Amino acid sequence: MASVHVLNGRQKKLVHGHPWIYGNEIEHTEGEPENGELVEAYDFRGRFLGYGMYNANSLLTVRLLTHDRTEVNDALIEFRVRQASEARRIIRERPGTNSCRVIFGEADRLPGVICDRFGPVLVLQILTLGMERYTDLIARTLIDCEKPECLYLANDDRIREKEGMTCFTKVLFGQMPEPVIVEENGIRMQVDIRGGQKTGSFLDQKANHLYVRQFCRDARVLDCFSYAGGFALNAAAAGAKSVTAVDISEAAVDLIRRNAEMNGLKVDEVCQNAFDFLREQVRTGNHYDVVVLDPPAFTKAHANLENACRGYKEIALSAMRLLPKGGVLATHSCSYHMPEETFLNTVYSAAQDLHRQVQLIDLRRQDMDHPVLAGYPESHYLKSVWLRMLD
Questions:
Q1: Which of 22, 122, 210, 381 meets the CB 3.0–4.6 Å disulfide criterion with 151?
Q2: Is 334 among the catalytic positions?
């Protein structure tokens, strides 16, 4: 078996459980590994670090599957799929919710493998060349564990091209129901698996969608970057006086409308850039009791962190100007490259600029079906900050 040897100083994170070896962290390679092939990893002193999948096409040249001498074979992959499925049993038993993330890539020790359950449908993504050889095994195991009506292979993410793979989609098992209707916190929602974002929808905010309800009875609620309306629908279900959901996508706004109608809920949908909408609301002197900000990632690289902070601060400033004394702001960042402390300080600085005192109600993260793997900080990506305006 070919092997890679990492530079001095780069082994510490791997010893602590991190699964990635970047190309510029490799001192030298012994043998001639083929892309997608299993290799051994060693530190600069020749101490064994684990087995991983090699791909010279990727910046993440080696993705470790083990940090010991455990053999990597079909039995190991099947065990980890079953382990991931069993770990989601708590979510499956959650009343009024039938969707969850079943496999969360490296956090479930299955590098580049994503599987989401949307009611009767499983959506599987294989994003790394080394794991693609296990596609059939993973699919068979998921079908056995989850008993879906349909398993859809959504291998259309552009990251596959960087891995040297083609992009395609395919129904691997059963028949796709049309439309796909799921339930979340007792709310029925339509999911666009074939044309929606990611695997069809975002599942990491389920618990936070429910959490917002306690602030919303008889409240005026604004949900910006709403997508399918998760926060807006839960606010309406909680008895909000009014709910406004804003998204720049016409398809998303149409989805919010259909979801609201399906549940008999009143939501005012606005198709507009949320930055512009927030500025307009400030200019016209409108006020809301609860404002939710759940934008897409403003940065996908650490080098862009400063610009991202400006974006998060701008929308926080607008939101705070719309909130009266006692109002609640829930603001989010879904980028790992935005550290939690930096994000929190960015939001605090908006309050300081406005000379307003705020109270931290809660600091939350992604739902429990998106677990955080110790030693792999990238798996903690969603930051959820909940503030109360004190004056």
A1: 122
A2: yes
